[in-house]
Amino acid sequence: MIKRPRWIYWKQIFPSKFQASCLKAKLEDNWVNGYENGPSVEIRKIKNDRYIVRYTYDE
């Protein structure tokens, strides 16, 4: 059985893709020197040309 990832959505909506990508880089960098595997981070476009950031949560 394939386990689908659990997504956590960041609480803020960003007006530009650049701002969302800055948060994405920050989330990915937090796991570089850690002991756990890093999350999969995505930027999704929503209506009105705004962006949200979501990342995986694996137990």
Task: Give structural notes.
The structure is a single chain. This protein has 59 residues and is an alpha+beta fold. It has one domain (6-57). 22% of the residues lie in helices and 31% in strands. The chain has one helix and three strands. It has one helix at residues 17-29; strands at residues 6-9, 41-46, 50-57. A three-stranded antiparallel beta sheet has the order 1-3-2, covered by helices on one side. Strand 2 (41-46) and strand 3 form a beta hairpin. The longest helix is centred in the middle third of the chain and has 13 residues, at 17-29.
Q: Key terms for this structure?
A:
alpha+beta; 59 residues; three-stranded antiparallel sheet
Counting structural domains, the number is 1
Individual helix count: 1
Number of E-type strands: 3
How confident is the prediction overall: mean pLDDT?
83
DSSP helix fraction: 10-25%
Percentage of residues in strands: 25-35%
Q: How are helices and strands ordered from N to C?
A: EHEE
Most strands sheet: 3 strands, antiparallel
Strand order of the largest sheet: 1-3-2
Question: For the terminal residues, how far apart are their CA atoms?
Answer: 16 Å
Radius of gyration: 13 Å
The poorly predicted ranges are none
Give the helix/strand class.
alpha+beta
